[in-house]
User: Which sequence fits this backbone?
């Protein structure tokens, strides 16, 4: 079985909010060293899911990203966590935030690899939170699609899988033939900490840089503006002589506003 | 003639509240010059008429199963028949799949989880929150069809007016699914679901220890329809069940009132609650992100504030 895990890097979601700001002219988020980019939360779970399938059934796992060289630490993290090889495709010129172009580029890269049986993605890129690239990727590839997935069991025939998919009020169990695109949610597993040995091996591994990004389609949706949070509404500090007074004053304000 | 198509949904025989909110959003856009409002529902004629009563000018029904790949050809047909150039879909289990699929089928893009919509020079502009609410991204389209999914509770549902009328057309097209649903299971939940609570009281690592959640539960108990949540940090420390985690890797809530106690407001947490209507925080740090986004805040040790707050709410209640 060949599993491709599509990954991306995001600023650390646990970093203090103050370490993040918006560059309105460039329409790009920026962050200070306190929020160093990490492999996106859900992608870590996708890598772990691939590693578990590899252990249980035997598989080759390829980590794939469409990004600049700054994304290589994320690929090395994926290698340390169980991926066998890593491929980086330079993003298409002018793609900006055109995620349809990213989906096309991922699909083009996947087609250059040995045939993929299973393509795993995180359910959303933590931070950007759109979550539509996996579905678009499935459409480009013509593969079935399932999301948000919280369990994957490979069937003995090697040609199909059984998945658990979250619904509004529980989950459904679905059966799908391979090849398939599955976007995984964090409930699926607890990503392992890579061993020192695997981290060192990953540092030495060669990351394949592939050409062939698909140019952005200028007719698709585009990001028109990226603005910082609207902080025009000032926070009203509730004051008082003592902490108790403040607590009582807050109760009064909440009551007066009809909050409670 | 351009127009708007709302993809409505039914759950357990009833049109979902989010569907009516989409009609509210569509009526607003229609008022800004986006054309008439058509509604699509995989449901009954009676449900189609409910959608007309709240503001749709016409409706399409389909008996296709509510799975994105099965429904897609039916929605495509409704887009073609209505002539709509804007499609509004709820950010639901279905919408998360259908939005990107519909966009792909039309070689266009989709703005997911949008919270604000407006018409500018005849075209749609959709705004959504990113990086835990630290950034607001605005999207426009160059391609003819503009597809958005809309976050729940972003728009008000219009009042129903039974005198409204419009044509209801049945659509026969449907697709085949490449996946087979073998079974479903409902999650067992006790008490009020945190996603449904009008008030959420949440605690973070700043609480200092597990026992503090008892006080948060007491506060929630004095507020009707309140649920208790926790930040990822607090859940990772084992202080509160992961089922109550609010944030990127937890639940997304948008209550009328969100009380954040000792939560600094990293984007991990904000991603799950930035849509709250009113945020009140109790925090020692006046510069914390959570305080900055709050309507009201107390800068103090929550241990000293909470007992008085709870007592006073009981008195006033």
Assistant:
């Amino acid at each position: 079985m060949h599993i491709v895990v599509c990954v991306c890097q995001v600023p650390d979601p646990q970093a203090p909010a103050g370490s993040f700001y918006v560059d309105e002219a460039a329409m790009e988020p920026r962050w200070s060293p306190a929020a160093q980019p990490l492999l996106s939360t859900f992608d870590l779970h996708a890598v772990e899911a691939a590693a578990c399938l590899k252990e249980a059934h035997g598989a080759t796992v390829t980590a794939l990203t469409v990004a600049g060289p700054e994304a290589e630490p994320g690929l090395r993290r994926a290698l340390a966590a169980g991926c066998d090889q890593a491929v980086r495709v330079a993003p298409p010129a002018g793609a900006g935030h055109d995620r349809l172009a990213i989906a096309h580029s991922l699909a083009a890269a996947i087609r250059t690899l040995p045939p993929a049986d299973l393509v795993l993605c995180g359910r959303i890129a933590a931070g950007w939170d759109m979550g539509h690239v996996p579905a678009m990727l499935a459409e480009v590839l013509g593969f079935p699609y399932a999301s948000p997935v919280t369990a994957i069991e490979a069937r003995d025939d090697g040609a199909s899988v059984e998945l658990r998919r979250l619904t509004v009020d529980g989950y459904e169990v679905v059966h799908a033939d391979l090849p398939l695109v599955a976007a995984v949610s964090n409930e699926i597993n607890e990503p392992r900490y890579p061993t020192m040995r695997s981290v060192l091996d990953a540092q030495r591994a060669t990351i394949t840089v592939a050409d062939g990004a698909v140019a952005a389609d200028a007719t698709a949706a585009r990001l028109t503006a990226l603005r910082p949070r609207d902080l025009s509404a000032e926070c009203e500090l509730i004051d008082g002589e003592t902490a108790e007074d403040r607590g009582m004053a807050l109760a009064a304000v909440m009551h007066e506003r009809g909050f409670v | 003639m351009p127009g708007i198509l709302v993809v409505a949904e039914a759950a357990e025989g009833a049109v979902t509240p989010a569907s009516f909110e989409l009609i509210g959003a569509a009526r607003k856009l229609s008022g800004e010059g986006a054309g008439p409002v058509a509604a699509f529902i995989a449901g009954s004629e009676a449900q189609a008429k409910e959608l007309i009563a709240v503001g749709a000018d016409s409706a399409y029904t389909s008996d296709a199963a509510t799975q994105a790949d099965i429904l897609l050809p039916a929605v495509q047909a409704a887009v073609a028949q209505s002539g709509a150039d804007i499609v509004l879909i709820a950010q639901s289990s279905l919408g998360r799949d259908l939005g990107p699929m519909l966009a792909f089928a039309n070689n266009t893009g989709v703005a997911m989880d949008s919270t604000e919509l407006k018409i500018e020079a005849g075209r749609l502009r959709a705004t959504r929150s990113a990086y835990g609410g630290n950034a607001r991204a605005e999207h426009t389209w160059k391609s003819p069809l503009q597809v958005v999914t809309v976050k729940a509770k972003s728009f008000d549902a219009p009042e129903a007016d039974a005198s409204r009328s419009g044509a209801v057309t049945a659509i026969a097209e449907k697709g085949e699914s490449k996946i087979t649903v073998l079974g479903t299971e409902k999650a067992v939940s006790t008490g009020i679901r945190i996603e449904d609570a009008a008030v959420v009281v949440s605690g973070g690592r700043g609480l200092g220890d597990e026992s503090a959640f008892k006080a948060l539960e007491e506060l929630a108990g004095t507020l009707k329809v309140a649920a208790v949540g926790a930040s990822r940090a607090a859940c990772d420390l084992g202080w509160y069940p992961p089922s109550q985690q609010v944030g990127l890797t937890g639940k997304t809530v948008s209550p009328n009132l969100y009380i954040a106690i000792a939560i600094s407001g990293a984007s991990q947490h904000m991603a799950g609650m930035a849509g709250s209507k009113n945020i009140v925080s109790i925090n020692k740090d006046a510069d914390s992100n959570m305080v900055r986004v709050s309507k009201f805040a107390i800068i103090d040790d929550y241990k000293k504030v909470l007992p008085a707050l709870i007592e006073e709410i009981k008195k006033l209640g």
The two ends of chain B are 54 Å apart (CA to CA). Chain B has a mean pLDDT of 93.
